[in-house]
């Protein structure tokens, strides 16, 4: 597959796809440009091979790099070694030589070709459109990237890749502020699992022992505290009070969702799991929107927009409260509920209470129980 770059030079993606997938691919997109002033460099580390490092400060949510894969292939082993050789030979010499310098942690007994070993070590999961008749186990594909695959692992990563089928490229973006000279890391596994499980999984699949700050804890109480925090976060995403149900449930207190989400943010900061921030920041902003708190809505809305500009680029920026159809909806409904309740109670008590009188009482913050004594 060839993609034409700005210089009209083709960018080659060597692919091994099921024939039924080809008609479902998007029209050939233009090549994503390499940054003119890249915010990163690739250099050797003392004990982890090559790694990606920032050359300047990078803001949370900032795009670091957009890149096409050089090879796309099935995640399951291919029974013919010649297929891997063919994938390699389809690449231009410069891309082929650079790809062959990527880490290969698999011995010859497991992977008989360098390309297969490099793919099993580095390939990032990619999403495609599949025909309905295609079996589920055949729908797993991965891609090899020359630059993004230089990112080493951390259980508290500061960056993450996002695949775009429309552009056939992956965008690496910052999960939190990254300082100049700091290593840019991603996570290879689910970081919500306990330390021992993460270490075992990384050893099994990537043949290294993780020594990131979150796996280097040695005191039992530190390890337990970290494990419990990650377990709480994993459970929180399945059990947390959701904005969609809360915002119309006037029986729940106004801070039900906000307090829960702020507690989750504390755990996220503690464990460096900033990849989980998106939903939390968005729902806090939406809570303040339906509460009509413009100052807090702008603060949290801005944090969400900046943090998720690459991760969730389809989200409309709702910084202007006039663009939010349910602005202050909960606050208005609470006032309406109190007004109708007091009007009903007044009628039952045989009191003749006018609407302006009730509105004045609400403005003064006087409850109906004391209104009977208001002259």
Secondary structure layout:
Layout: E1 2-4, E2 10-12, E3 14-15, E4 40-44, E5 50-54, E6 63-67, E7 71-74, H1 81-89, H2 93-99, H3 114-122, E8 124-126, E9 141-144, E10 152-153, E11 159-164, E12 169-174, E13 183-186, H4 195-206, H5 220-239, H6 243-246, H7 256-271, H8 277-291, H9 294-307, H10 329-348, H11 355-364, H12 368-371
Parallel strand pairs: 3-7, 10-13
Antiparallel strand pairs: 1-2, 4-5, 5-13, 6-12, 7-9, 8-9, 11-12
Helix pairs in contact: 5-7, 7-8, 8-9, 10-11
Characterize the structure shown.
This protein has 375 residues and is an alpha+beta fold. The chain is 37% helix and 14% strand. The protein is built from 12 helices and 13 strands. It has helices spanning 81-89, 93-99, 114-122, 195-206, 220-239, 243-246, 256-271, 277-291, 294-307, 329-348, 355-364, 368-371, and strands at residues 2-4, 10-12, 14-15, 40-44, 50-54, 63-67, 71-74, 124-126, 141-144, 152-153, 159-164, 169-174, 183-186. It has a 4-stranded mixed sheet, with helices on one face. A hairpin with a 4-residue loop joins strand 11 and strand 12 (169-174). Helix 10 (329-348) crosses helix 11 (355-364). The longest helix has 20 residues, at 220-239.
């Amino acid at each position: 597959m060839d993609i034409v770059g700005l210089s009209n030079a083709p960018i080659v993606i060597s692919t091994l796809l099921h024939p039924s997938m080809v008609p479902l691919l998007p029209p050939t997109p233009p090549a994503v440009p390499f940054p003119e002033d890249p915010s990163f460099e690739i250099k050797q580390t003392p004990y982890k091979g090559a790694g990606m490092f920032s050359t300047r400060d990078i803001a949370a949510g900032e795009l670091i790099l957009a890149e096409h894969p050089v090879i796309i292939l099935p995640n399951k082993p291919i029974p013919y070694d010649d297929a891997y050789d063919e994938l390699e030979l389809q690449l231009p010499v410069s891309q082929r030589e650079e790809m062959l310098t990527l880490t290969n942690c698999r011995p010859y007994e497991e992977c008989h070709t360098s390309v297969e070993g490099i793919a099993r070590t580095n390939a990032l999961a990619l999403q495609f459109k599949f025909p309905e008749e295609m079996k589920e186990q055949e729908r797993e594909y991965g891609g090899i990237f020359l630059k993004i695959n230089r990112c080493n692992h951390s259980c508290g990563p500061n960056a993450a890749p996002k695949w775009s089928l429309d552009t056939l490229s992956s965008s690496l973006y910052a999960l939190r502020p990254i300082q100049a000279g700091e290593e840019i890391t991603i996570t290879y596994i689910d970081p919500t699992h306990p330390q021992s499980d993460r270490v075992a999984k990384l050893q099994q699949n990537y043949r290294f022992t993780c020594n990131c700050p979150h796996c280097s804890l040695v005191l039992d109480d530190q390890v337990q505290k970290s494990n419990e925090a990650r377990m709480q976060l994993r459970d929180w995403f399945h059990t947390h009070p959701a904005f969609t149900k809360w915002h119309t449930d006037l029986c729940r207190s106004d801070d039900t969702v906000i307090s829960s989400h702020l507690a989750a943010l504390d755990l996220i900061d503690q464990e460096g799991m900033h990849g989980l921030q998106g939903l939390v920041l968005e729902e806090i902003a939406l809570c303040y929107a339906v509460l009509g708190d413009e100052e807090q809505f702008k603060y949290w809305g801005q944090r969400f927009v900046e943090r998720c500009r690459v991760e969730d680029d389809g989200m409309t920026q709702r910084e202007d409260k006039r663009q939010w159809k349910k602005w202050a909806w909960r606050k208005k409904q609470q006032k309406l509920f109190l007004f109708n309740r007091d009007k009903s109670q007044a009628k039952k008590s045989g009191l003749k209470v006018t609407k302006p009188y009730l509105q004045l009482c609400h403005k003064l913050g006087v409850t109906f129980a004391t209104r009977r004594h208001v002259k």
